[in-house]
Amino acid sequence: MSDDFVLDTDDLKRRMDGAMANLRTEFASLRTGRASASMLEPVMVDAYGSMTPINQVGTVNVPEPRMVTINVWDKGLVGKVEKAIRESGLGINPQLNGTIIMLPIPELNEERRRELGKVAGQYAESARVSIRNVRRDGMDQIKKAKADGMSEDDQKFWEVEVQELTDTMIKSVDEALETKQAEIMQV
Description:
single chain; alpha+beta; Gyrase A, domain 2; four-stranded antiparallel beta sheet; 6 strands; elongated; ribosomal large subunit binding; Ribosome_recyc_fac; RRF_sf; Ribosome_recyc_fac_dom; Ribosome-recycling factor
């Protein structure tokens, strides 16, 4: 196995891209003072004995810039949807109108903006950790190949490849975090 070792960098990149995609999803769920249907994506409702995404129990609409409505299809789930929103940590107080739940989006005060900025930072750190775990996995594969007879030059080559990929992805996370924090702090 000495000279024919080829690290699957496409697999490592795909897994790191998965961490980035997850980060974007988490960022989309953070409020920025503007109503967005995506802010409800992480909210799960206990429906029919299993945790279900909110968009699978009702229609989510944004009729105006500071309002999100959810038209719940099953009257029996209205209370559960309301409870899930209250417990989600979004800081939104749902108002019931029959099977329609209205979510007025309040202006974000300075303190809440700072809190959301910290949450965004936590999401970004979680993505960095995921990326570093993929890097470690790649480095472990290289060490195993070295033990199986890979040359030191090949080992260095693959380690540099993995590190460059990691650095690129971490830079992407940092840029996404900067953009999101600027968006949150924007009044």
